[in-house]
Predict the 3D structure of the following.
Amino acid sequence: MVGSRRFRAAIIGVMLLMLAVIIACGEEATETAAPTAATAAPPAAEIVTLPPSVTGQTPVATATTAAAVPATPTPGTVPEGTLDVGMAVLGPYVATNYEAGYFQNRFAELVTHETLFIMGYDGEWEHRLVTGFDVSPDGLTYTIRLQEGAKWHNRTNPGEWGEFNADDFIWSIGEIAREGGSHVQNGNTRKVFRCDGCELTKIDDYTVQLKRPTPTFQLTWYSQAPIPGFSMNSKKHFDAVTPEEAVLQDVGTAPWEMVEHKTDELRRMRAVEDHWRHVPEFAEMIWWDIPEESTKLANFQAGQLDTGIFNSDSIQAMKDDPVNNLTFMVFPAAIIQMMWFEANHYTPDSPHHQPDAEGKVKVPVDPHYSDYRNLCDNGENGDDTRPWVACDRDVNSAEWERARKVREAMLRAINRDELINNIAFGEGEPWYIGIWANRGRMQQLGLDKLGPPDGPRPMDYDPELAKQLLVEAGYPDGFEVPIAKRLGTGTLLTVKEAVAGMWEKIGLTTKLRNEQPASYRVKSQQRTAIDIYGLNDAPSFPEPLRVYSTVYTSSSGGMFGVNHPIMDDLIAKAETTYDTDERWRVQGELAEFIFENVLSMPLYAENAVWPLSGEVDSWQVAPAELDWLSYWDMPRRK
């Protein structure tokens, strides 16, 4: 492997028989010979099918139930070689993940930093920077023991920042939960650690105590990777440097330490050879930011990448024309494709959006875009009109029913089977509930009782009914649908374009525009996103509440385009229901509300497929976030 490389690949010939890959090493450019056609047919690719997502529940935090990871380096490991990973649209690197966007925080907790807890291979939580915790009999006091010996990175001056300790823990929690902060777990961290009446104090260097006015079963939920959670940072480091320096300097405790980062190009990490927990087998790992799918595929075929995120077209091309020693890691039905209706924010009067007694606003939002009455189709035909937004949040009102029919018409126009066959090459299944609810969870939520025995009543493909619903809603001639195309996400772009074509067939006019993930996240947080948007994610949360409380409540800094007083009330009820069976019943009631009112557009589940070159072997990962994988310190050299 070459040290530092810029990827510029041109595909020459229909079957990729010749590839020109230009590689830059430092400031000097060198050229490698293009691969020639093989004289014999390459061997068929080996497909390693890994277990699907686990549906087990996270235990209530009433005892220390997870086994601690031994705080000893991997014996005899001598890191060698480079692991090259092809990614897309990573955005600017930000070490201070408290004000970073979703993707920056996600990278930190998966690669360079560590969380308090981590999801294990079986879907249950395990300790990472916490070795255990005890809960008082009344469930109000939590004594948390921290990992000793977890050194902070400092490649140029080892030991300067010392080890992770209680001061770092308390400071990191405070930064994540900062009023008005943009961290993906800002609101949830406030609820668990910084609620009114909550008190977090230091007992000694490796022990902290949390006192709460009420019990919580969510202590492990939001500080757990990779679904996503939050990671720890060094208080000593942040106190010693300027905020501008801290943004760009990596100081984590993970087995990978950042060495170099260039926006829209690369992130280079080195293995920490004396790591407290595990030493990677590779000496270096580089995440290459390659938004152009054909360029990424060409570099993999040329042997310049070892693995990465590829869309289904590229995976099929690899299967049709495999290179030597190609293997695949396959995770069945791991990625859910879905879209959602932005601007359905029916809580402008929520206390979270209004100044408190001290004049502080916990979740600042734009007052125009957060008020549904400014966005609904009220006959004024403004630029912000969205027919799928109701002018009355009363679910029994005629206005609510009008907008609901619009949403149902748009969902009924989508042919899920066609998407699966044409985009996922037949490797998928229709999805009706949401990113968190696989078939097992549908039964846990009681949603299997809504319709046929094999699942809930589906909002299935019916274009004639879709047209009829548009007429009943007052749109016989359709309307314009703006769709935000999130750049660099491979198959998701194709899905949006296909859905746009289906909406055109029922008389709607679609308008697709490009949108960077980072900029759209800011709009989502401020409730100013008013287009149709989408994502792909993994259905692997311990309970639906884990995602509901992050993206479906007015207290959240991140949105899936909808909140409503009924949803807020049900989420609050679930969060204070300690009987597990009853809590699942409440979550089922909330899921039914979202389903019946067509407040999301789940499409289908497809396999997550990761190709592996002849340099790297498969490794175990957590059954979550399988579009980015996890346990990146565990890949094995062949």
Q: What stands out?
A: Residues 336-354+365-606 form a domain with the Dipeptide-binding Protein; domain 3 fold (CATH 3.10.105.10). The chain has a mean pLDDT of 82.
